[in-house]
Amino acid sequence: MIEEKYFVSITINGIEYQENVSPDLTLLKFLREHLGLTGTKEGCGNGHCGACTVIMDGKAVNSCLVLAVQANGSHVRTIEGLGTPDELHPLQKAFIEEGAVQCGFCTPGMIMSAKALLNEKSNSEEEEIREALSGNLCRCTGYVKIVQAVKRAADYLKKKKKDSSL
Amino acid sequence: MSIIKWAEPTDLNEAVAILNNSVNAIIYAGGTDILPLMNYGLKSPEICVSLRKCKSLTEIEFGENEIRIGSMVNLASLTENKFLKKTFPALVNAAIRVASPQIRNMATLGGNILQERRCKYFNRSKRWREGMDPCFLINGDRCYQIPKSDHCCALYYSNLTAPLMAYRAVLEIWGKEGLQKMEIEKLFNYGGTRNLKKEEILTGIFLPLPYPKTRAVFIKESIRASLDFPVVNLAAVYSSNIKKIGIVVGAMAPYPLRLSDTEESFSRLINVNTVDVVKTLSEMAYEELKKKRLLISEVELNTNQKMQRFKGALKSALEQVLLN
Q1: Do B101 and A1 touch (CB under 8 A)?
Q2: In this model, does residue A2 exceed pLDDT 80?
């Protein structure tokens, strides 16, 4: 079937959204403009900066380089799906505590890339953290504090896992 | 950017029919290469034919003498496959060095091979290009890379094609006449155009299993360590059982260059000290590459600078496959 409008069903942060979309609508625009989930940022729009990173079916992707039609049937997690203002996700908490946020524009993307890494390997080495964040550009911090924040978050997650297994 | 229609055939014959009956249809794999080109106004397809629902294209199959990798297997999956890591390390290392983790999670093997070539004029925004006449790649009549050239001289930056050529890969192509096989080198015509008809689909890549005691290496030289195209890349595969070496260089020309004279000379270097073999081969390969008329400069890098980076990469590659 060749379609001019395509029916998509995408589960975002646990909620299923269904809509007829134009084939050239990116997942980024679907999130920001159709659903109002503006935590995911648009930077370069061409996959260079990583500001638009979300997790799709467990993998970090640039939402500016994924069409909504490609995401049809997928489970997507955005920064809005991580913590709440009252109960921050360990990554969000660690970023604040380490001062890993300056202008903040790259932060949602950084956190989603870090989350995808820690989901797969919670005890990641510094080299693995740097590799996982290599598709995310930050023009403010110089990356040191960001890497420290991911390490701190990994420690929080390990502690949380240990506590829950007691 | 505008895509008018989207198709997701589950059957390859259906995909071929759509491609054959449309004036301006393109095959859509991961989208990481084509989407920025659409954003720049360089591609405006009427129909995008997505292959993501064609199941046989996303599988890796292991045979007795060869393996088949579906063209829609993404690069992250290649890097995570234990058998590939052990048996085809140069291919896996080439995949690891592509762009960023986010892009590797979407980009496909077939897309990497068939990626659009790049140049200092072509890969710019519409606004940037407005004051200049179109080049060969966009139906114009000139080349900005090599102004005297009568054809497009955009560079081909694929990381994976060099090791695939060094491992002697064969492409599986589905078209109107059904399945065909083609040596990967035959995909590229002089000048960089592709030997594929508009309705033909690259469906898989066959890799013959290397001889025992084969050593292989992939090296990418780039200005930035991550998220950067190569200044030069190369793959070297050495099978000590049959005393043969394969050396393929990428990012220097409109298609990857096999250094066949150097490969042939290697078999004649018998009873020569291995350190001297590395030195002699390095010199031969450098001279052979220098003689190729296709070498092309890029933004802020002339061919001499690229050749120097090649020299260093080649020495390191030969030492790794011959000395270790």
Answers
A1: no
A2: no
Question: Does B226 contact A134 at a Cβ distance shorter than 8 Å?
Answer: yes
Q: Which residue of A has its CA nearest to B50?
A: A70
Question: Is the pTM value of this prediction over 0.90?
Answer: yes
How far separated are the first and last CA of chain B, in Å rounded? Answer: 50
Write down the CATH superfamily of domain B214-323: CO dehydrogenase flavoprotein, C-terminal domain (3.30.390.50)
The answer to whether the CB atoms of A48 and B48 lie below 8 A apart is: no
Residue type, B8: E
Interface contact flag, A3 B7, Cβ < 8 Å: yes
Tokens 């590395």, located at residue: B278
Cα dist. B205→A98, A146, B278 in Å? 47, 40, 31
Residue B85 belongs to what H/E stretch? helix B82-87
Closest chain A C-alpha to B41 CA, distance in angstroms: 13
Task: Identify whether the C-beta of residue B182 lies closer than 8 Å to the C-beta of residue B173.
Answer: yes
Alpha helices in A3-125 (DSSP H): 27-29, 90-97, 107-120
Which three-class secondary structure state does DSSP give residue A162?
helix
Task: Identify from A62, A112, A150 which residue to disrupt to test chain B contact, counting B C-beta atoms within 10 A and taking the largest count.
Answer: A62
pLDDT in tens, B17-63: 999 999 999 999 999 999 999 998 889 999 999 999 998 899 999 99
Shortest Cα–Cα distance, A140 to chain B (Å)? 18
Domain segments of chain B as ranges: 56-208, 214-323
B8 min Cα distance to partner chain A (Å): 7
Distance of CA B33 to the CA centre of its chain: 13
Which class in CATH covers the domain with range B56-208? alpha beta
The ipTM assigned to this model is 0.96
CATH label of the domain that carries residue A160: 1.10.150.120
Query: B291: how many CB neighbours lie within 10 A of its CB?
Result: 9
- Closest Cβ–Cβ partner in A1, A67, A132 for B101: A132
**Which residue among A4, A62, A134 places its CB closest to the CB of B5?**
A4
Q: What DSSP designation does B45 have?
A: -
State whether A70 and A103 are in the same domain: no
% of chain B surpassing 90 pLDDT: 76
C-alpha distances in angstroms, A27 versus A34, A44, A137, B63? 10, 15, 20, 38
State how far residue A31 is from chain B, nearest Cα, in angstroms: 18
Q: What is the domain-level CATH number for residue A57?
A: 3.10.20.30
What are the b/e assignments for B24-51, b being 16+ CB within 10 Å? Answer: ebbbbbbbbbbbbbbbbebbebebbbbb
Residue B204 has pLDDT above 70, yes or no: yes
Q: Is the pLDDT of residue B270 over 80?
A: no
